[in-house]
Amino acid sequence: MRLEDEIMQKKFKSEHHKLLVNIIYTGNWVNAGSIKFLKQFGISPQQYNLMRILRGRHPETASVTLLTERMLDKMSNASRLVEKLKKKGLVERIECPDDRRKVEVSINDKGLELLKKIDGYEYEKNFKNLSAAEAKQLNKLLDKFRG
Q: How far is CA 24 from CA 12, 66, 145, in A?
């Protein structure tokens, strides 16, 4: 559906202004879909992102600093997310015996199983309206947009 119809706005100051509004609107649309999808698994998109980072490093651990640097949502509090995932039994938090401020995190078997379960769904089906070539082109344009 066209942006104009979605937000009931007929005119924009310019194509660049429309692009800005479209990117914000689309980002929120994708995020809302992610929240809805991941809710059935009892995790948030930020928790999912953190768990995927940990899976990519498994069996190695990751510092909270590294998780913060690699997270998609730079406004997320990685320490708080780790604690929530720990309470759910999905990750392990390992304190350094010499420096209690230093913490390493690893995903455990239960966390890996949950990710495997999520992977079984066609999470990318939201993008079924785009061909692989169109998705590649859009990826290039978004990379170019960010500079």
A: 14, 27, 13
